[in-house]
Amino acid sequence: MPSNKKWVKDVKTVSTSPPPSLFTKDANTIANSLASKKVSPKGIGSGIRMLQYYINRAGKNLPAARKKVLERAKELLHEKLEESKEKRKTS
Fold first, then answer.
1. What is the pLDDT of residue 10?
2. What are phi and psi of 21, to 5 degrees?
């Protein structure tokens, strides 16, 4: 049975989506936007998943420099997630 490598092209969401051209901006802007409740109402983890989805969709067509910026944004989101977990622990 042949596998359909393009399964992800059929995935659509109506819940939230990042602003147009967000992923062409700098790492701090991407991280701050994806961490906002407006873009990720279910939390920072949702923003991380959106970013990873974008990276995966771009695949080999993503230039190394752009991927580095996106990976940095993902690191910033992980840091924000850890900070929010620490806040919840101390509260």
1. 63
2. 60, 20
Q: In this structure, which long-range contacts are made by residues 73-81, counting pairs with CB atoms below 8 Å and at least 24 apart in sequence? A: 73/27, 73/28, 73/30, 73/31, 73/34, 74/31, 74/48, 76/27, 76/28, 76/31, 77/31, 77/34, 77/35, 77/44, 77/47, 77/48, 77/51, 78/48, 80/31, 80/35, 80/44, 81/44, 81/45, 81/48
Distance CA 80, CA 4 (A): 36
Query: Which range among 52-56, 77-81, 87-91 shows the weakest confidence by mean pLDDT?
Result: 87-91
Q: Tell whether the torsion through CA atoms of 52, 34, 75 and 42 is positive or negative.
A: negative
For the stretch 14-55, pLDDT in tens is: 557 788 899 999 999 999 999 999 888 889 999 999 999 999
